[in-house]
């Protein structure tokens, strides 16, 4: 899954598709074309920065950013488009225009989001986050991070089924970096095989995140090796989808993981 942020302020790639404050559609289409050539099979389009400390955007602003991009990408490419949003209006608008998946860092907890997702009828990624982006990294606390994340995702999955979503349209994401210390993130990562046992496909997003900077001491533009390594390890531990910035390098790493698995399965 290739990340396409259509925000002026995302943490690793903010503003890359902007000329001043106006969005440049051609530069986005070129980036999508590149990501597909590099091996992406899903494109995740987001219009709200959820970096630590970010403030929320209005639904109107988010619609204005995201919907023209979804429309243009859907018209031009045969690829599954995921929209990274918590906003029911963006969900409905994007799926109307051809999006095939919803990715919500708030796990459909906003008013109207569960109903919107059920009406959309597409797969949904439920992500765990403690708190809100504006304050989530201030003092994250858990008694048992793995048990709490798992219980949260199970509760949200039950809410989804009650709202009418199909069980096989639900994906889980532990939400690396969202209200978690380095130790919390590492514990969760080590627990991926345990989470995978639940049967929900796992989506993992660690690409360029600060947990990698905390371990390696590298700035955000120097975290590719750590990102690719973690993507390969996540795949080995049962992740089904990797949400990444460095598509080509990650695709090579995943090809190696897949080759090892295939050889083993044949033995
Ligand atoms: C994630 C996400 C993630 C899912 C972002 C960033 C911050 N959606 N949206 N999982 N992260 N499902 O790209 O680092 O980890 S935005």
UniProtKB/TrEMBL annotation:
Keyword Transferase appears in the UniProt entry: yes
Organism lineage: Bacteria, Pseudomonadati, Pseudomonadota, Gammaproteobacteria, Cellvibrionales
Protein name, UniProt field: dihydropteroate synthase
Keyword terms, alphabetized: Folate biosynthesis, Magnesium, Metal-binding, Transferase
Keyword Metal-binding among UniProt keywords: yes
PANTHER family xrefs: FOLATE SYNTHESIS PROTEINS (PTHR20941), FOLIC ACID SYNTHESIS PROTEIN FOL1 (PTHR20941:SF1)
GO-annotated cellular components: cytosol
Annotated metabolic or biological route of this protein: Cofactor biosynthesis; tetrahydrofolate biosynthesis; 7,8-dihydrofolate from 2-amino-4-hydroxy-6-hydroxymethyl-7,8-dihydropteridine diphosphate and 4-aminobenzoate: step 1/2
Highest taxon of the lineage: Bacteria
EC number of the protein: 2.5.1.15
Listed cofactors: Mg(2+)
Domain Pterin-binding: 1-255
A GO BP annotation: tetrahydrofolate biosynthetic process
Native organism: Spongiibacter nanhainus
Reaction(s) the record says it catalyses: (7,8-dihydropterin-6-yl)methyl diphosphate + 4-aminobenzoate = 7,8-dihydropteroate + diphosphate
């Amino acid at each position: 899954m290739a990340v396409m942020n259509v925000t002026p302020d995302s943490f690793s790639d903010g503003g890359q598709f902007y000329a001043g404050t106006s969005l440049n559609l051609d530069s986005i289409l070129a980036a999508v074309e590149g990501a597909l050539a590099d091996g992406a099979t899903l494109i995740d389009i987001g219009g709200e920065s959820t970096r630590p400390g970010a403030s929320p955007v209005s639904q109107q602003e988010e619609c204005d950013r995201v919907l023209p991009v979804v429309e243009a990408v859907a018209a031009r490419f045969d690829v599954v488009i995921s929209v990274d949003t918590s906003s029911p209006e963006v969900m409905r608008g994007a799926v109307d225009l051809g999006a095939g998946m919803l990715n919500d860092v708030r796990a459909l907890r906003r008013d109207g989001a569960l109903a919107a997702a059920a009406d959309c009828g597409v797969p949904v990624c439920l992500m765990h986050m403690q708190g809100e982006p504006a304050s989530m990294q201030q003092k994250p606390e858990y008694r048992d991070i793995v048990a709490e994340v798992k219980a949260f995702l199970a509760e949200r999955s039950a809410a989804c089924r009650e709202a009418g979503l199909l069980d096989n349209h639900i994906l889980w994401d532990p939400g690396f970096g969202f209200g978690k210390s380095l130790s919390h993130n590492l514990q969760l990562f080590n627990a991926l095989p345990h989470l995978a046992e639940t049967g929900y496909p796992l989506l993992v997003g660690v690409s360029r995140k600060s947990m990698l900077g905390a371990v390696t001491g590298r700035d955000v533009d120097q975290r590719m090796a750590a990102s690719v390594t973690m993507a390969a390890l996540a795949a080995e531990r049962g992740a089904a989808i990797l949400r990444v910035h460095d598509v080509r390098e990650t695709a090579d790493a995943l090809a190696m993981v897949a080759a090892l698995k295939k050889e083993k399965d044949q033995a």
